[in-house]
Amino acid sequence: MIPSVHHNDMDCETEVDDKGELCKDWARGGLCTIHRPTMFLFCRKTCLCTGPYRFARS
Question: Domain ShKT, which positions (predicted)?
């Protein structure tokens, strides 16, 4: 039996944002939802694991 491969699987315990602290600022600006493909490349932990809602403006 061939094991299934999931290329988009991610482990939130080991995931790192490529753009560091900028990701939190961008999430506050709504970019996790406005520019999903770009944010997936650079800010996976902030946008997918932590959640952009944690950084939303009040």
Answer: 12-49
Q: 24: number of CA atoms within 13 Å, CB side? A: 6
pLDDT tens string 12-56 = 899 999 999 999 999 999 999 999 999 999 999 999 998 877 776
Structure tokens at 33: 């939802």
Q: Domain locations in the chain?
A: 21-50
Pairwise CA distance, residues 41 & 3, whole Å: 26
Measured CA to CA, the distance from residue 28 to residue 1 in angstroms comes to: 45
Does the pTM exceed 0.85?
Answer: no
